[in-house]
Amino acid sequence: MPFAGDVVVAASDVTIEYPAGHGRQAHRALDGVTLSIRRGELMGLVGETGSGKSTFAACVAGLVGRRLPGDDVPQIVGGSLRVLGQELRALRPRARSRLTYEVGYLPQNAGRLLRPGFTVAENIGDPVLAREPKYDRRELGGRVAELLDAVQLPLRMMSMFPHEISSGQRQRVAIARSLILRPVLWVADEPTAGVDVTARGPVLDTILELQSEHDFSALIISHEAAVTARLTDRVAVLQGGHLVGLGRLDEVLENPNHPYVRGLAEEYRIVTEPIQLPDLEGDDR
Questions:
Q1: Cα distance between residue 153 and residue 147, in whole Å
Q2: Is the pLDDT score of 166 beyond 60?
Q3: Distance (Å, rounded) from C-alpha 25 to C-alpha 87?
Q4: How confident is the model at residue 284 (pLDDT cuts 50, 70, 90)?
Q5: What pTM value is reported for the model?
Q6: Taking all residues of the chain, what is their mean pLDDT, rounded to a whole number?
Q7: Cα 141–Cα 145–Cα 150 angle in degrees, nearest 5
Q8: Confidence of residue 67 (pLDDT cuts 50, 70, 90)
Q9: Distance of CA 63 to the CA centre of its chain
Q10: C-alpha neighbours within 13 Å on the C-beta side of residue 228
Q11: What is the 3-state secondary structure (H, E, C) of 50-75?
Q12: How far is Cα 228 from Cα 238, in angstroms, rounded to an integer?
């Protein structure tokens, strides 16, 4: 049944840990985080490396209790995390499968995770066929072509393989793949990673256009101030697994109540401050 609520993500005092094992001590990635994402809202998630951003994003995408690349298995050990009405702390396999159909996930370094033996078209369409093997191939081809065009890649690229295209192009293929199921919620961990600086603006415009067209909600991680400022309605700031800022970007940065947020405010001011061009009126050089 399609999700019909107004709040697509509701974290209430949620605490997430990586259990001890294989010679490692237990590690608390998130500690008592409370935030919500409303239907149609684009929420930014920012913070230093190791602050818990990627762990939170992966858990929201339904990967709680499952091994993450390069990590152990994150577990919710306190509080509540509800996504599209489902309590993730007690999520059964069938409910997890339904949830991942509704949530599009772009993991960190997604462009590197494309299947090397699949063409670009096969990589983008794979999530559909994994769920519906008998899905009409002609219709799927149309959806793939539409998304490829949306992320501003030529249709001739459909028959190419990941190793034949650039890292930035692979990232855009990964974005298309994460949106092929027309998700209610899109979770994107560094969506512009590997994308050439000159192509980032068009990619961000594409994301906004797709969101406007399909009205999905989003949780977007980015270390780039310009990306967060361009894409998001509100931001959540994590530091050491704790939530230290939440609200509209301008509100959070204008009234920083934590030392880490004060540092961010200066960084964002430098990046987003408009460039003042010299007044050349009357200059006849």
A1: 9
A2: yes
A3: 27
A4: very low
A5: 0.88
A6: 87
A7: 150
A8: low
A9: 14
A10: 28
A11: CCCHHHHHHHHHHHCCCCCCCCCCCE
A12: 14
Phi, psi of 213 (to 5 degrees): -70, -40
Residue 129 pLDDT level (bands cut at 50, 70, 90): very high
Residue 29 tokens read as 């990635």
Structure token pair of residue 238: 């994590």
Distance in angstroms (rounded) separating the CA atoms of residues 159 and 242: 45
User: Domain 7-112+184-272 sits in which CATH superfamily?
Assistant: P-loop containing nucleotide triphosphate hydrolases (3.40.50.300)
The residue type at 249: L
List the chain domain ranges.
Answer: 7-112+184-272
Q: What is the identity of the amino acid at 63?
A: L
C-beta separation of 240 from 231 below 8 A: no
Structure tokens at 254: 């204008």
Sign of CA dihedral 235, 237, 238, 244: negative
What is the rounded distance in angstroms from the CA atom of residue 83 to the CA atom of residue 61? Answer: 8
Question: Using 50, 70 and 90 to split pLDDT, how confident is the model at 276?
Answer: very low
Specify the pLDDT at position 226: 82
